[in-house]
Every structure is written in structure tokens, then in C-alpha cells.
Amino acid sequence: MPKKRSPDASGAHTDFSGEMSYGDYLQLDRLLDAQRPLSPSHDETLFIIQHQTTELWMKLVIHELKAAIRQLQRDDLAAAFKMLARVSRIMAQLIQAWDVLSTLTPSEYLDFRGFLGRSSGFQSHQFRAIEFLLGNKRAELLAPFRHRADIHAELAALLNAPSIYDEAIRLLARRGLAIDDGALKRDWSAPYRADPSVEAAWLAVYRDTAHHWDLYELGEELVDLEDFFRQWRFRHVTTVERIIGGKPGTGGTEGVAYLRGLLAIRLFPELWDLRTAL
Fold first, then answer.
1. Apex 277 CA angle, 273 and 278, nearest 5
2. Per-residue pLDDT averaged across 192-202, rounded?
């Protein structure tokens, strides 16, 4: 029998009594029920949605970075490039999102800040995962997650595994570029420190781009990524300063002073230093 035509003039299907709808696929009932303000403040909903959407984007960043690391391990740079480019575009979205939160004035934030208790973005386990995947390793950052054994174990595994930059360096060595053992067999849980042999290897790539084109492209994808990551952090600092000034953060940090200190962190130092040496 012919299908019954929709009464909608566009021909769109309208009967979902026995089929999966858009809302079903995206689990919108659960998603849209997850905003539960604790105060009567009108503006707390903005604060919650800003952070929840950031966490969703960060989930995708982690998904893409883990996949990019696997592709580097397989020497499949073309696939890794697509994933790294996607992460950079996600970072661009996150940077732009601070513009929305910056509409929150200090007075509006104070209307509900007391309801947050000690909860803080410092406790975002997904942000820590991104930092570890990018190479900003510090074991003490695991401490806020001791009450969640599952999250603590996942972060500890990332802390003790090579970062995406470690994998890029190992790839340089596999391609025949001279890398000292100290950069190839180091303690992965320790912060990365610039290595002269790594800078020399990247310089060789950038001085003969025709011969090392895919490695050259990898270097630029990583620079793009760190560039966007730095901008994200900078917009975070300026937005927080605009809203709370010099007050301590709800999680106990020094607030803006703490965030400013993070701006000095360099994830892929040799890729920036070589620009001076070229």
C-alpha cells in the first residue's frame, strides 16, 4: 500500500508515535532537563548552559585528540591532520563562547555565586584530560578527583601516557631525524622540557619542507592547535577578571592571578623557538 501522505505541505514526516524522532535521537528530554539552577537568579541559567556546552565541546576535543594520537602512532598523518584541524575549530567555538558569558555583570554573578559552594572549573576532569593529552602534565592536578575512582584512574592513565607532542617527536625519530634518548624514553608523567635535539629535528623539517612536507604540515597543525588553546585561556582570564576582578576563585585558587600564570605554559616549545632560529 502507498504510504499515507503527511498533512504537512512540505511533505515532512510528522507521525513519530512508533519511530525515532529528532528529540529521541539526541535524548533532548535528558539534555534539556540538566539545567537546574540553585538560586532564584535569572542569570544562573546562562552560567550553567555556558559550562555545560563547554563540557560537551571538550568531550569532542578528547575524542579527536585520542584518535589523532592513534593515527600518529600508525604514521597515518592525513587522518591525524583532519582531527587536529577539527580540534582547532572547536577551540575557536570555545573562544567565541566567552563573549556570551561576558554579558554577565559582577552584580548578576554575585546574585548566585554563593550557591556554587566550592565547585569550580578547576575541577573539570575533561579539561585536565585535554591538558594531559596536550602535554601539560602535573601529578598534583589529580587530587580533586580522588573521590571518583573511575575519573581518577582515567586521568592517571593519560598522565602516564605519551602526549600528542611526545608522539610527534617519536614520529620524527621514526622518520630518521636524530632525537636524543632523553626525549624518547622520558617519564611521560613529567612536564615536557624543550630539547635541543628536538628543535634541531624540527628545524631540519622546516628548512626542507619539500622533503618533509607531511611533517611540516604536522608542525603547523600543532602550532594552530596551541595558538587556539592559548587564545581560549586568554579569553578565560579576561572574562573572569571582568566578572570577579581580583577575588579568589570558588575552588580556592587565586582566581585571575592563577589563570594568568597558566598563560606562560608552552606546550610545543621547539615549534615556537624554531621561528627565531630559521
1. 115
2. 97
Amino acid 188: pLDDT: 97
Q: Regarding predicted confidence, which is higher, 62 or 240?
A: 62
Question: Which H or E run includes 159?
Answer: helix 149-159
* CA pair distance 116, 26, nearest whole angstrom: 28
Quote the percentage of the chain above a pLDDT of 90.
Answer: 83
CA distance 90 to 236: 15
Q: With a cut of 70, say whether residue 144 has pLDDT above it.
A: yes
C-alpha cell, 15: 507521525
Q: Tell me, what amino acid is at 136?
A: N
Measured distance between the N- and C-terminal CA atoms of the chain, rounded to whole angstroms: 73
DSSP label at residue 178: -
Please classify residue 18 by burial: count the beta carbons closer than 10 Å to its beta carbon, then call 0-12 exposed, 13-18 middle and 19+ buried: exposed
DSSP tag of 194: -
